[in-house]
Amino acid sequence: MREFRLKSLEIYDKTELPTWGPSLSELDMDNIVTYVRPDTEMKGNWSEVPEEIKDTFDKLGIPKAERESLAGVGAQYDSEVVYHSIREELVKLGVVYTDMESALHDYEDIIKEYFMKLVPPSDHKFVALHGAVWSGGSFVYVPEGVEVSYPLQSYFRLNSPGAGQFEHTLIIVEKGAKLHFIEGCSAPKYNVTNLHAGCVELYVKEGATLRYSTIENWSRNMLNLNTKRAIVEKDGAIEWVSGSFGSRKSMLYPMSILKGERARSEFTGITFAGAGQHLDTGTKVVHAAPYTSSTVNTKSISKSGGTAVYRGSVRVAANAHHSKSTISCESLMLDDFSRSDTIPVLDIMNDEVEIGHEAKIGRISDDAIYYLMTRGISEEEAKAMIVRGFAEPIAKELPLEYAVEMNNLIKLELEGSIG
Predict the structure, then answer these.
(1) Alpha carbons 115 and 127: distance in angstroms, whole number
(2) Which among 181, 333, 373, 401 has the fewest CB atoms less than 10 Å away?
(3) 265 near 233, Cβ under 8 Å?
(4) Is the CB of residue 157 less than 8 Å from the CB of residue 61?
(5) Residue 126: strand, helix, or coil
(6) pLDDT tens string for the chain (419 positions)?
(7) CA-to-CA distance for 50 and 82, rounded, in angstroms?
(8) Read out DSSP for 187-228?
(9) Do the Cβ atoms of 381 and 410 come closer than 8 Å?
(10) Torsion over CA of 127, 296, 286 and 345, rounded to 10 degrees?
(11) Who's near 403: CB < 8 A, 6+ residues apart?
């Protein structure tokens, strides 16, 4: 692993910053701390976690969520996982859910086979940085035929000013197995730049299904440069549900590689860009086998001068005949000085395919607001209702507690700032 880190650092030093998307010129890596050790070892019992850390996660509802609806929970504070637990019945079924450092020692052969093979350090500058300085994250292994009926969840909290978080998530869902994994992210606001450059690698084997849900609520001093990728084998399915609310700048494009026949992917995402935010998000799909299918459904909201960009790529290989892809992008602007862009790339190398792309950008209808106001609803609440309705198709794809969180985030974004 040390050799791997050094090689990644070499690649990082030689690789230039991206020349497209939001400017990253404000990032000064000399002033980013790449490792912050929390003042505790990892615990398996919530009562043993230090009070300061416990209070932070209590406010985020982690233990409560675990008691009510989750099969396992991991909580990372800065650069280390401080708490991890999994239901005993899953352990008996052979399900592994642990932190990446433990996995490196306890499941060395599996980690060697899969770690940064799907997202190699040569991919781009910040993946190379991740390969050099990664710490924390989650490892999940679901054996063949096992269906995990409750979600597993990891929560990442970056709590130090001027720091970076570089967690690595590696999930392997074997043949015919099923899993729903939830990822939550947050950070308090500081007056210095923070960096998030995590990496997610998802391996979905034959006939398996993985749903990966994320709500990212980073603070406005965060540069979110995360990389997520899934490879799906024959008759397998990956379902992405993604909510991007925080950070000053984001560049995030979860990718699905449909490697086997009849593999499918679904991407459902929402982005909310407010004042001072430039959120460049989207998805990438590669149809690399016949009869594969993909669905992309994204919504973006921009207000108070924020910029929301959908940047997507769908590629159909020459051998991927009878593939289908449907892309729908909807953007809602809440004033006349915000910005929304849709930048799709369709690279179709086979004629026997069905591809559809639709993009809609618009403002809130004055007629709709007037109609609601005639029913005794205030102008502010009328606008909020329309925004919540716009976001509703995304909310219903989330587990209940995350749908509530998303609606609360929308409410906070809208309070006193529309009009």
Answers:
(1) 12
(2) 373
(3) no
(4) no
(5) helix
(6) 999 999 999 999 999 998 888 999 888 888 887 776 655 454 455 565 556 555 655 555 555 554 454 445 555 555 555 555 666 777 888 989 888 888 999 999 999 999 999 999 999 999 999 999 998 888 999 999 999 988 887 776 665 666 788 999 999 999 999 999 988 766 555 556 788 899 999 999 999 999 999 887 777 888 999 999 999 999 999 999 988 877 889 999 999 999 999 999 999 998 989 888 999 999 999 999 999 999 999 999 898 899 999 999 999 999 999 999 999 999 988 888 889 999 999 999 999 999 999 988 888 878 888 899 999 998 888 888 888 888 887 777 776 666 776 777 777 677 644 33
(7) 9
(8) ----SS-EEE--EEEEEE-TT-EEEEEEEEE--TTEEE--EE
(9) no
(10) -80
(11) 395, 396
The amino acid that residue 11 corresponds to is: I
Nearest to 119 by CA among 108, 109, 134, 105: 134
Q: For the chain, which residues make up each domain, given as ranges?
A: 2-365, 366-419
Amino acid identity at 393: P
Report how far residue 337's alpha carbon sits from residue 339's, in angstroms, rounded to the nearest whole number.
7
| Single-letter amino acid, residue 218 | W
Cite the beta strand spans of 87-177 per DSSP E: 96-99, 138-142, 152-157, 164-165, 168-173
